[in-house]
């Protein structure tokens, strides 16, 4: 039995995989909290309580807090695990788009292998954390943010840093601009930064696969398709791609 643990900056994902049956036996999605080591302890406890023998399983850790899993047999970067998970779910070459809490990664998969990848700048505003900060500023939930974005006319957000972008949002609110237009500007800002990253590859893909926290959001998939001018697919397990990829790399 293999266990993949993906401790992200915002959410942690776990997949228990039976390699003999090629079957996902169990999965967990939980907040990462403030301390990755405590989170790894909670994951261990949850697995044991649900009948899994963690100590006699092969555990692979990935993500922002991967080094904080003391019972991991192997530690692997998100680039590798997200590509493995995406290939398992999609079963063909693509460019993987992973919009995480603190960073966004674009991974080019060619002939079933990672051929290139790019990550955003540390202070870039094209991440999940950026959306969380802006939705809090607007006093709406993340789901409400997307609903507002659908009906709004996007106001361009020029700042590439979350701190400065928040000041920009405050200024727009002070001007009395419509909440839905600001929300649309924020969501479009994230999508445009993702598109900008994909353009840095020499050969643009004909198919993109969205993983991470936004992968279950139809509006983000639709928006990325529109801006990229290419097909964007996802999967109900897209958010678990990193944990799944880690589990697949078990011994």
Automatic annotation (TrEMBL):
GO molecular function, one term: metal ion binding
InterPro entries hit by this protein: ATPase_BadF (IPR002731), ATPase_NBD (IPR043129), CoA_E_activase_dom (IPR008275), Dehydratase_Activator_Redct (IPR051805)
Keywords from the named record: Iron, Iron-sulfur, Metal-binding
Cofactor or coenzyme needed: [4Fe-4S] cluster
Domain ATPase BadF/BadG/BcrA/BcrD type: 3-250
Pfam families, per the entry: BcrAD_BadFG
Record has Transmembrane helix as a keyword: no
Gene3D superfamilies in the record: 3.30.420.40
Protein name from the UniProt record: CoA activase
Taxonomic placement: Bacteria, Bacillati, Bacillota, Tissierellia, Tissierellales
């Amino acid at each position: 039995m293999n266990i993949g643990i993906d401790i992200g900056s915002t959410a942690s994902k776990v997949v228990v995989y039976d390699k003999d049956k090629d079957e996902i036996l169990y999965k967990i999605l939980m907040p990462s909290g403030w301390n990755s080591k405590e989170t790894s302890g909670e994951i261990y406890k949850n697995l044991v309580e649900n009948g899994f023998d963690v100590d006699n399983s092969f555990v692979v850790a990935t993500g922002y807090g991967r080094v904080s899993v003391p019972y991991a047999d192997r530690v692997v970067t998100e680039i590798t695990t997200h590509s493995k998970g995406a290939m398992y779910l999609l079963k063909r070459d693509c460019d993987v788009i992973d919009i995480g809490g603190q960073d966004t990664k674009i991974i080019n998969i060619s002939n079933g292998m990672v051929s290139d990848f790019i990550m955003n700048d540390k202070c870039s505003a094209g991440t999940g954390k950026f959306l969380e900060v802006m939705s809090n500023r607007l006093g709406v939930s993340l789901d409400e943010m997307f609903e507002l974005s659908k009906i709004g006319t996007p106001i361009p957000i020029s700042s590439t840093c979350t701190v400065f972008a928040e000041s920009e949002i405050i200024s727009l609110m002070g001007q009395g601009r419509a909440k839905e237009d600001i929300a649309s500007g924020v969501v479009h800002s994230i999508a445009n930064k993702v598109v900008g990253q994909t353009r840095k590859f020499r050969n643009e893909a004909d198919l993109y696969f969205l993983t991470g926290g936004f992968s279950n959001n139809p509006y983000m998939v639709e928006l990325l398709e529109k801006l990229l001018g290419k097909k964007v697919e996802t999967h109900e397990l897209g958010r678990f791609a990193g944990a799944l990829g880690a589990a697949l790399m078990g011994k």
